[in-house]
Design a protein that fits this description.
This protein is 40% helix and 17% strand. It has 3 helices and 4 strands, in the order βββαβαα.
């Protein structure tokens, strides 16, 4: 899966407590995917995010979004391609944790 593509069905499971985990795609450069009900943002980064300039931009953007109450998850494109199940499990776990914090 590359930036700009919808997450596969495997990444849209129901969270552990029976709620729905829905992602909404946002216009770049704000975020790749946002789940507003869980205050969760998923960023899927390509290799250009490894440059010092882009890393600094990503840190600023992450700090801004965190200041607005969002949890930010970042995955490399390669991780999504090689281990989609692990990425999805990480997202579901983070959604459950943010749900606990929000209650």
């Amino acid at each position: 899966m590359l930036v700009g593509q919808r997450p596969p069905l495997a990444c849209r499971p129901s969270p552990p407590q029976g709620g729905r985990l829905r992602f909404h795609q946002c216009a770049a450069p704000i975020a790749d995917f946002v789940c507003p009900t869980h205050h969760l943002i998923v960023e899927i980064d390509g290799s250009h995010h490894g440059s010092p300039e882009q890393m600094a931009d990503d840190e600023r953007r992450t700090a801004h979004l965190q200041s607005r109450g969002y949890t930010i998850l970042r995955f490399w494109n390669d991780d999504v391609i090689r281990d989609i199940d692990g990425v999805c499990q990480h997202i579901v776990t983070a959604a459950a944790e943010t749900e606990e914090i929000l209650q």
